[in-house]
Amino acid sequence: MLQNTAKADTDKLSDLFIQVTDDLAFARTQYPNSQTHSYLNALASKIHMHIYKNKNEDKSRFINFWKMEVPLTMKRNHSKLLYAFIVFGLAILIGVVSQNAEDTFVRTILGDGYVNMTLENIEKGDVLAVYGRDSQMDTFFAITFNNVRVSFTVFIWGLALSVGTGFFLFYNGVMVGTFYTILAQEGFMQEAIKVVVLHGTLELSDIVVAGAAGFVLGNSILFPGTYSRLASFKKGALDGLKIIMGLVPVFIMAGFIEGFFTRFTSMPWILSGLVIGGSAFFIVYYYIVYPIRLHNELQKRIHTA
């Protein structure tokens, strides 16, 4: 019934909800650490969420996707988000160490063309001139499309049993670490933090969250649990796709910041700090804090039902 929500009978679901919560209470008492308890707990949460939003489903479906579905999906997969963050963070560190150990490492990672262009801009006195090369709208669309492409690539490669996602996270992390290191070596680290991090906070967060989605997809094949491998894969693919689709507003905002603000390399520090701080707060709150609060609130309602 939950898989066919358009045809679901709310009254019937209410009756089933009572039965499921009775079973859940028994399982919580007798088998608190069992897979049955976990399964019933997740099922009760889904039924409860459907019942409470069903009356306004058609009108609020779009809002509920970002308000309920994406955060709850993230809560179930916070461990994958942590894995993605660790892989990406370690890769950045490796990029920093490698570039400090070998000056030519950056050419291997970023290519001669990009490095030569950066060095030419440094000689001209504007290391970040690349951000003002095209028109604002052209930059906005190009960057947004690129963010979508990279994030979907990281996600889809989860089909390679999560190894593909790990590789792309690692490679992108090394690129980021190498890029910031060469700017620091040339004496432009302050400009990099002030300008590049302006859009990079959201842009890099996109990659990490997309990596979590890729791990959800890959792990659904590797670790089906009590589901059949096919059923687990379908569930993982749906959860991963929800996470990726939930990133769409973040893609747009990151592209907007890079297209319309990053080009202003002389922007006051206080304004840059507000944008960077606001972006970081949004990512941490929406993908970590809010999902936990929402989950706890639903659990409280279930326990008192």
Description:
The protein has helices spanning 10-30, 35-53, 57-76, 78-101, 105-110, 112-124, 136-156, 163-185, 189-222, 229-246, 248-260, 269-304. The chain is mainly α and 305 residues long. It has 2 domains: 1-63; 78-294, no CATH class. The longest helix is centred in the C-terminal third of the chain and has 36 residues, at 269-304. The protein is elongated, with a radius of gyration of 23 Å.
Q: For the terminal residues, how far apart are their CA atoms?
A: 21 Å
Q: Work out the number of β strands.
A: 0
User: Main beta sheet: strand number and arrangement?
Assistant: none
Low-confidence stretches: none
Q: Which range does the strand content fall in?
A: under 5%
Round the mean pLDDT to the nearest integer and report it.
Answer: 87
Number of helices: 12
Total domain modules: 2
**CA-based shape:** elongated
User: Structural class of the helices, strands and pairings?
Assistant: mainly alpha
Helical percentage: over 70%
Order of helices and strands: HHHHHHHHHHHH
Work out the oligomeric state of the chains in this entry.
Answer: single chain
Report the C-alpha radius of gyration, rounded: 23 Å
Q: In short, what is this structure?
A:
The protein has twelve helices and no strands.
What would the keywords be for this entry?
305 residues, mainly alpha, 2 domains, 12 helices, elongated
Layout of helices and strands:
Blueprint: H1 10-30, H2 35-53, H3 57-76, H4 78-101, H5 105-110, H6 112-124, H7 136-156, H8 163-185, H9 189-222, H10 229-246, H11 248-260, H12 269-304
